[in-house]
Amino acid sequence: MNEAEFRKLAEEKGYAEAEQGDVDPGYDEEFHTHDYSVLSLILAGEFVLTTPEETTILKAGDWCEIPAHSIHKEQTGTETGAYLAAKK
User: Which fold has domain 3-87?
Assistant: First the structure.
């Protein structure tokens, strides 16, 4: 998926305007939740998304949706990760 397709999808799903973020290599956060849903598009690097049920590796062009109150954590590989994320 490219950025234009992602922004269209986010709008169709009722998300706020997507913002870009960067994450340092080797980032490894603890399990957590949000009070909001997140729709993310990976722009660069590799992200590992882990939930209690599964682990998914996301690379440039991949996207994911994390519902509000879902337990999850993210990790990055050896490169800086870049993403677009929209909230609702």
Answer: Jelly Rolls (2.60.120)
